[in-house]
Amino acid sequence: GTGTPYIKGAVLQVVQNTSTSTHSGTATDWASTGFSVTITPKATSSKILLNINASVTGSGNGVQPRFTIFRGSTNLGEAGRGFGQIYVESGALFQSMATTSFLDSPNTTSAITYTVYMRTNSGTYYWGSDGGTQTFIAQEIGG
């Protein structure tokens, strides 16, 4: 059969995960924060639109926390900096919002887990550093 005729561009489902807990680490290679969202696409032609929002900081001067999204074992961001880095200077523990959007084409109808990973050049990184609500949203869009 041809399956269900999903409308191209239509939002077929939305999944959101939220957290108010802080994750910290000292990894210099990508390491999971444990913050993830799982979605099971209805069609292999679907696209998955990912949106993330969280507060991030590092432990001191010159610390450069970086974040990315992994689909299983695949890094969807740039190999070294992922979707971007925060630069902490003058020893100030300022917080920056880590926000990103990414449109993935996983080509599957099996469950997919997208997970936030972080790394740093030195020191400690903090994901969800202000105790506020972090959000991770996955929307399936008909392809």
Beta-strand content estimate: over 45%
- What is the end-to-end distance? 18 Å
The overall strand count is: 10
Radius of gyration: 16 Å
Largest sheet: 6 strands, antiparallel
Low-confidence segments: none
Q: Indicate the percent of residues in helices.
A: under 10%
What is the structural class?
mainly beta
Enumerate how many helices there are, as a single number.
0
Q: What's the order of the H and E elements?
A: EEEEEEEEEE
What overall geometry do the principal axes of the alpha carbons give?
elongated
Give the mean pLDDT. Answer: 93
Summary keywords:
143 residues; mainly beta; six-stranded antiparallel beta sheet; 0% helix
What does this structure look like?
The chain is mostly beta strands and 143 residues long. Helix content is 0%, strand content 48%. It contains no helices and 10 strands. The protein has strands spanning 11-19, 23-25, 31-39, 47-58, 66-71, 74-75, 96-104, 112-119, 125-127, 134-141. The strands form 2 sheets. Strands 1, 2, 4, 7, 9 and 10 form a 6-stranded antiparallel beta sheet that branches. It has a 4-stranded antiparallel beta sheet with strand order 3-8-5-6, with no helix packed on it. Strand 5 and strand 6 form a beta hairpin. The chain is elongated and about 55 Å long. The two termini are 18 Å apart. The mean pLDDT is 93.
